[in-house]
Design brief:
By secondary structure, this protein is an alpha/beta fold. The protein has helices spanning about 95-110, 115-130, 145-160, 165-175, 185-200, 205-230, 310-315, 350-365, 385-395, 415, 435-445, 460-465; strands at about 240-250, 255-260, 270-275, 285, 300-305, 325, 345-350, 370-375, 400-405, 425-430, 455. The longest helix has 26 residues, at about 205-230. The structure holds 1,4-dihydronicotinamide adenine dinucleotide. It catalyses: 2 nitric oxide + NADH + 2 O2 = 2 nitrate + NAD(+) + H(+); 2 nitric oxide + NADPH + 2 O2 = 2 nitrate + NADP(+) + H(+).
Length: about 475
């Protein structure tokens, strides 16, 4: 198979028949360095129903009748099977076609689910054998990276017939890939290998299935490529940021403040990717722990976790003067300033970081809205930011802060809110470990807050935190 004109043989077996050709990539963006997909540390994310963080994913590009591919894009590998033919398309597929493709793709995903690990191993083996020049661009350790690729695929596949959600997700993904130096030419190469790997392990792989995947990837990658190209006109691919203070609050938690080398626009409640100088190409997500400040400084709360490369480096190694890199801001767990509804905020552990930013955001607007914060931690000692929050409470009568520690509470954090309330008219914000988010959403729905008013970090992303 050939994807986007880069010409690698994707499937290890002969083509299912017919002409196998993926349309040529539209080279919307300029060549850039190639970087591997990063992984996550203490990721936070987005809001509501859907995650838009920059998950790992490389996809074949979109067919196009616009400018022909640059030299090199047409290169083929000797002996490669003829690539599949897919009609050119510049927009998202028609709903019917998308649904049919979505059904085929979901079937493949279900088939490969039990052997997902083998699929990803096979995919990376194909990729690095066929495109060895890409290997140095991925992190040395590929463990979390592997999971992220599959997750991104699952998310894209799951929403294939939900154009609005998919496009939003993919645009973020495309923008997020800029910091890796992703080049449009890499998408076809990766797409070929991905489809090659899927075709090896899907039980029911045929021409129609392959065509569905090709159509999906060409569409997916073009959305990403276009979003990256548009973003290139208005923002850097990454920011360098110098550590200005490093405050070890507990043996494992540091509050790290950095000064970006150029203005860094973001909204309270959002998060970014962080790469340390000690582990190149390994990126982890952290929320901004403050609303945007006049001095431009950014603060993160980092907990060192077992085998966490980035988190351990940030907590135990980083010192003032060190320079880290930041990706673009993302996430939509932000304050809706069009309403003055009360805000019920639950922050567990370092998940309190974006909650504090939200509180500061409300304070800065001078809004008269009730904000109720429940701050959960294992012990009193783990309430490392309680003084800051109590300080905010002191100056703002609309703010109430309650600490809930596992040691003392009969009820864990989410259930503690049942003791208070009523909360029906409140917007809810949840940030913390995946288990807390899950039980928190359950508790909030249970007390009558509609799902549309519950914003939280993506559980999928949190589960991938790992590091
Ligand atoms: N550092 C950051 O910027 C952000 C981090 N996060 C996430 O927050 C988490 C923080 O980890 P830790 O500080 O170690 O938190 P932790 O594991 O110590 O948990 C903090 C509190 O959350 C509640 N909780 C935990 N698991 C629960 C469950 N299954 N059901 C109900 N309540 C539960 C408990 O009250 C607990 O004391 C990480 O998963 C991280 O990825 C989320 C957003 C931002």
């Amino acid at each position: 198979m050939r994807v986007g004109g880069c010409g690698a043989s994707a499937t290890g077996r002969p083509p299912a028949g017919g002409s196998r050709h993926l349309p040529r990539r539209r080279c919307a963006d300029r060549p850039r360095d190639v970087r591997g997909e990063g992984t996550m540390d203490a990721p936070t994310t987005t809001s509501g129903e859907y995650d838009t963080s920059d998950g790992g994913g490389w996809f074949a590009s979109h067919p196009s009748s616009s400018p022909p591919p640059r030299g090199g894009d047409q290169e083929t590998h000797a002996g490669a099977p003829a690539p599949p033919h897919v009609p050119e398309r510049r927009t998202m597929p028609a709903p019917g076609a998308a649904s049919a493709d979505a059904a085929r793709i979901r079937r493949t995903m279900a088939e490969i689910g039990p052997v997902a690990d083998k699929v990803t191993s096979y995919f990376y083996a194909l990729l690095f054998v066929r495109h060895p020049e890409l290997r140095p661009l991925f992190p040395a350790a590929m463990d979390v990276q592997r999971d992220r690729l599959l997750k991104a695929l699952l998310i894209a596949a799951e929403h294939l017939d939900n154009t609005a959600v998919l496009v939003d997700y993919l645009k973020n993904l495309g923008r997020g890939h800029r910091k890796y130096g992703t080049h449009a030419a890499h998408y076809p190469a990766v797409g070929e290998c991905l489809i090659g790997a899927l075709s090896q392990y899907a039980a029911d792989w045929n021409r129609e299935t392959e065509a569905a995947w090709v159509r999906a990837y060409t569409t997916i990658s073009q959305v990403m490529i276009d979003a990256a190209a548009a973003d290139e006109l208005r923002a850097p691919a990454w920011w360098q940021a110098e550590v200005v203070t490093h405050d070890l609050r507990t043996p494992d938690v540091a509050v790290v403040t950095v000064r970006p080398d150029q203005p860094y626009p973001f909204l309270a409640g959002q998060y970014t990717s962080v790469e340390t100088p000690w582990w190149p190409r390994v990126w982890r997500h952290y929320s901004f722990a403050s609303a945007p400040r006049a001095d431009g400084l950014l603060t993160f709360h980092v907990k060192a976790v077992t085998a966490g490369w980035v988190s351990r480096a940030l907590v135990h190694r980083a010192r003032p003067g060190d320079v880290i890199r930041l990706g673009p801001p993302t996430g939509s767990m932000t304050v809706d300033h069009t309403t003055d509804s009360g805000m019920l905020c639950l922050g567990g552990g370092t998940g309190i970081a974006p909650i504090k930013a939200l509180v500061e955001d409300v304070a800065e607007r001078g809004a008269r809205r009730q904000v109720e914060v429940f701050y959960g931690a294992r012990t009193d000692h783990d309430l490392y930011d309680i003084d800051t929050l109590l300080g905010l409470q002191q100056g703002n009568p609309w703010l109430s802060v309650r600490a809930v520690t596992d040691q003392q509470a009969r009820l864990r954090l989410p259930d503690a809110i049942r003791v208070y309330g009523p909360w029906k008219e409140f917007d809810a914000y949840l940030s913390g470990p995946p288990g807390m988010i899950r039980s928190g959403v359950h508790a909030l729905r249970d007390i009558g807050i509609p799902p549309g008013r519950i914003r939280h970090d993506s559980v999928e992303e949190l589960l991938l935190a790992g590091d």
